[in-house]
Amino acid sequence: MSDFGFAIVGCGAIARTHVRAIGEIPTARVTALVSRRLSSAEALRDEFQLHAECFDDLPAALARPGVDAVIIGTPSGAHREPALAAAAAGKHVLVEKPLEITTERCDDVIAACDRAGVQLGVIFPSRFSDANRTLKQAVEARRFGRITLAETTCKWWRPQEYYDRGDWRGTVRLDGGGALMNQAIHNVDLLLWLMGEPIDLAAFTATLAHERIEVEDTAVAVMRFASGALGVIEAATSIHPGYPKTIAVHGDRGSVVVEQDAIVRWDFAEPAPGDEAIRATLGRSPEAAGGARDPAAISHLGHRRQFEDFIQAVRANRPPEIDGREGRKSVAVIQAIYAAARTKTTSEG
Length: 349
Hints:
By secondary structure, the protein is α/β, with parallel strands linked by helices. 37% of the residues lie in helices and 23% in strands. The strands form two sheets. A seven-stranded mixed β-sheet has the order 8-9-10-7-11-12-13. Strands 3-2-1-4-5-6 form a six-stranded parallel β-sheet, with helices on both faces. α10 (185-195) packs across α13 (324-343). The protein starts with a strand and ends in a 6-residue tail after the last helix.
């Protein structure tokens, strides 16, 4: 079986994570790099000593032999067009979060991939961490009794220079939002994966620590799920020096807290096999590097695992674990949060 070939579209910081992840998969390789500035693609190729062809034209890259799938890592509001082009060329599509910045644009991408008969995946590597998968298993096993509260925090710091050095950052047109849409969307995705979609919510957003941006750097939302459980989201790039992200589930029979892909609390009223082994490793995780202060510090392990699942999905002709419809859900909830914050009223999910 030949190697699975990826073309990477967008050669910014996240592309380096993609290259590192693919480099650890023996059956995969980067065959093409695409950037509006050819020099950016060439610099990435040279940095990692890739045997990849560089392009400043996407159609030319799509016509290259050896491209099985396209990874899209352009600014968030520029995901739709390359995804549509890739699908039309018969290439499978893997998109960095968010799938797009509105549900309407997400729907365009989903429909195009459906028509073309290609697989569509959305990159949410936090779902592939051992800690979050262990938490998911506990939820599915109903170990919490009645879940009463689920909460997630992304209390990160980004200096003003972070926004100033990229002309798309902090814009509605290309970023689609701020701390929620760009950073905390991973947390939102995890919350929905664990709890389902909310039935109503209320929110506040603000820009408190940065200038010259059109989007929020601080947001809070509260919600109610169909089960009756309540939820809380805190998202920020305004909190110095930045702290690890968290996801927690609490119920009348147990509580679990995950901090930066490491379990830090595992407390249940009824013991179960494996509990002591989990407690013995509290706070330890091979994936614990995070982006609380520095986006470049994010681990690529989750990406590697998700890319492996995507390759297996394509070869088995099945949807990947996080397909387009799953990826759309977090965008829909974030849009509802923004709408609730604008109107200062509750908004049905």
